[in-house]
Amino acid sequence: MPSMLTKLALAISLATACFCVSAQSVTQDAPAPTANAVPTKASTAKGQHGWFWYDDPAEHETTPPPPPPPPVGSASAEPTANQPEIGSVAWIAANIDKIRDRAIDNPTKDNIELFAYVQKLMMDKSEVFANAYITDVAANPALDETSRHPVSGYANFTVNEAINRNRDAALSKISKGTAIWYFFKSDCPYCQRQSGLLQKMAAKYGFDVLPISLDDLPQINGDFPDWVPDQGQGRALGVTATPTMYLVHPETKQVVFLESGLRALPELETRVMEVAKANTWLTDQEYEKAMLGLPQKFLTTTFKPATVKDPNNSAEVLAALRAAGMHSVQNADMGTLDDSAKAPSTPWMGKP
After folding, report:
1. Which residue segment(s) compose the domain that 227 sits in?
2. Domain boundary pick from 139, 163, 178
3. Could you report how far apart the first and last alpha carbons of the chain are, in Å?
4. Max CA separation in the chain (angstroms)
5. pLDDT at 111 over 70
């Protein structure tokens, strides 16, 4: 009989032979991959891929990180299509926040000085622009607002005289074609004060005032003794507060709201002119003279965009704006003036 050791060796040999046959059988039964076979991925643990595993190289490729942005100030001084010139307003606007933030986060001497220099550069550019702007605008009456709104005391006094004179003329004209409906209540304290102002305005400019009582009683202070009771006008207009005033134009039969509540005389006068202008009972020129002393010339009404053929041509745009304003020649030669004038330009100077 075979010994136990012999049996054990025989069992190991048989197990090895069976394993080899099994492996060969699996290999022969599996179809061989062809050139047209589509690789298939199998979900296996890392490092345990079978023959059918397809390893996609794209999965192992990593996108390189973008290059770091260049530090501020390291760019070339040559401006490009997307890069403003260093030191220009556009460059300062694009970089000042980054320069400031870097100085705050890391307040080294260089970072602080860079921020301070860039900030001073912008302030100096602003001051140079302001000085040039003041000089150029002061030499051009079309752009100098002090020609329309003086700042000196003497000029203001003269303008105010003209405003008062023109205001009186405008209100007198309005009073000839309109009247004021004045709604009041007998015990209204504000009406007692408003009545006196209305009487002054009526006496000064000639307005006819129709006092209408909403409670069918006269005013306690006795103003406007020729009052009339409300006969439906107040109800139709929705009048609930007193005093309330309307400007009435009998010719066109228009009734236009004027004011509600106690109003000072200058405020009431201005409101009358605004209503009259809005309803063309007062011309724009009359209104401007009464409010500002002189008729105004606004570019919004005189500028003609259609005259500009090339909007990208700054010289052409400037010429059109000059034509719309009060632009005048800022410099001239006396010889040229003498040639175009009937008499020499210099006899009053006492010089040849």
Report:
1. 155-292
2. 139
3. 157
4. 159
5. yes
Work out how many domains the chain is built from and give that number: 3
Collect all residues with Cβ–Cβ distance below 8 Å to 172 and sequence separation of at least 6: 205, 206
Global pTM value: 0.50
What is residue 152's predicted lDDT score, i.e. its pLDDT? 73
User: For 238-261, how does the pLDDT look when each residue is reduced to its tens digit (9 = 90+)?
Assistant: 998 999 999 999 999 999 999 999
Q: How many CA atoms lie within 13 A of 101 on its CB side?
A: 6
Angstrom distance (rounded) from CA 180 to CA 199? 11
At 182, the amino acid letter reads Y
Residues 117 and 200 in one domain: no
pLDDT digits (tens, 9 = 90+) for 276-290: 999 999 998 898 888
More confident residue, 339 or 223: 223
Q: Which amino acid is at 55?
A: D
| Residue 273: strand pairing partners | none
Pair type for strands 228-229 and 244-249: unpaired
Q: Are residues 204 and 302 in the same domain?
A: no
Q: How many CA atoms lie within 13 A of 184 on its CB side?
A: 32
DSSP letter assigned to residue 76: -
Distance CA 243, CA 224 (A): 13
DSSP code for 70: P
10 Å CB burial of residue 32 (0-12, 13-18, 19+) is: exposed
* Three-class DSSP category at 211: strand
Angle of helix 153-177 relative to helix 265-278, nearest 10 degrees? 60
Report how far apart, in Å, the C-alpha atoms of 10 and of each of 15, 24, 83, 227 are.
9, 21, 87, 140
For residues 194 and 37, what is the distance between their CA atoms, to the nearest angstrom? Answer: 102
Token pair in block for residue 74: 């390291």
Name the residue type at position 322: R
How would you list the strands of the sheet with 179-184, edge to edge?
228-229, 208-213, 179-184, 244-249, 254-260
Residue 271 near residue 204 (C-beta atoms within 8 A): no
Q: Check residue 102 and give its pLDDT.
A: 95
When pLDDT is averaged across residues 131-160 and rounded to a whole number, the result is: 77
The Cα 172–Cα 290 span in angstroms is 12
Task: List, for residues 185-199, the tens digit of each pLDDT value.
Answer: 999 999 999 999 999
Q: How many CB atoms lie within 10 A of CB 77?
A: 7
